[in-house]
Automatic annotation (TrEMBL):
Protein's organism: Luteimicrobium subarcticum
SUPFAM superfamilies, sorted: NagB/RpiA/CoA transferase-like, Winged helix' DNA-binding domain
Protein name per UniProt: DeoR family transcriptional regulator
Molecular function as annotated in GO: DNA binding; DNA-binding transcription factor activity
Higher taxonomy: Bacteria, Bacillati, Actinomycetota, Actinomycetes, Micrococcales
Pfam families: DeoRC (PF00455), HTH_DeoR (PF08220)
Length: 264
């Protein structure tokens, strides 16, 4: 296992367990404790995990949020597979909103080949990825939130008033059947609510690391979510609760198999 793959596996183990010993991590990634200790130290320096005596812990708290760069290292393959499924919901002639986030950016990269599409976004990175394409890009106003390259604040919310699109794609930081989609940041939550109000249907993009997780600010209540696109590592019990609420669940497979959609 290469260093990058091993560290991604360590991150996933710590996220799932909350706290993991060096021995447990070494067994999980088939490496020595010395190697894992070095990996944990590197991951702590990047702010992804907290180092504990004899192991590592997942940074906790309802207000904790990783930086954009840290998020790109979590469930990267799953986010790519989710984006492949998400783009299948978009049609030529559509008008959509893409919120800020690592998964929505993956979707944007796949939309560059469209010839008749309008994308409204509050993400500087999404706009950048679509800048040289034939897609018409409408960027909201707002104040730049440097940690996520997102435009937030009253100007961003005001620019979304009066906008009407068919689909809005949002990712957030946590998703549960009880609270819906949530984020640790109040400004982000306010903009996401404005995005929801502009769309006929809301599509949530949430890899398995976000399911069952709650953060401080609710952005989209479960009853307002039309589609959830997740990956095949998602907890089935959590998915079943979301299905019972009428959410259409699409499961992206890392092996490239067609997405498993709920039957009507």
């Amino acid at each position: 296992m290469h260093t990058i793959e091993r560290r991604q596996a360590i991150v996933e183990q710590v996220r799932r367990r909350g706290v993991a010993s060096l021995r447990e991590l070494a067994a999980a990634v088939d490496a020595s404790e010395v190697t894992v200790r070095r990996d944990v130290r590197a991951l702590e320096q990047e702010g992804i995990v907290d180092r504990r005596r004899g192991g590592a812990a997942w940074p906790g708290g309802l207000t904790h949020e990783q930086t954009y760069q840290q998020k790109t290292r979590v469930a990267a393959d799953e986010k790519s597979a989710i984006a492949d499924v998400a783009v299948g919901l978009v049609e030529e002639g559509d008008a959509i909103v893409l919120g800020a986030g690592t998964t929505t950016r993956e979707v944007a990269r796949r939309l560059a080949g469209f010839s008749d599409l309008t994308v409204v976004t509050n993400s500087i990175l999404v706009a950048q990825d679509l800048a040289r394409s034939s897609v018409e890009v409408v960027v909201t106003g707002g104040s730049l939130r440097g940690s996520t390259f997102a435009l937030v604040g009253s100007a961003a919310e005001a620019s979304l008033q009066g906008v009407r699109v068919r689909l809005a794609f949002l990712s957030g930081n946590g998703l549960t059947a009880v609270r819906g989609l949530s984020t640790p940041n109040a400004q982000v939550a306010s903009v996401d609510r404005a995005i929801v109000a502009a769309a006929q249907e809301v599509v949530v993009l949430a890899d398995h690391t976000k399911l069952g997780v709650e953060t401080m600010m609710q952005t989209v209540p479960s009853e307002s979510i039309a589609h959830l696109i997740t990956d095949d590592q998602a907890d089935e019990d959590e998915l079943e609760q979301l299905r019972r609420l009428g959410i259409e669940v699409h499961v992206a497979h890392l092996d490239g198999a067609p997405a498993a959609d709920d039957e009507e």
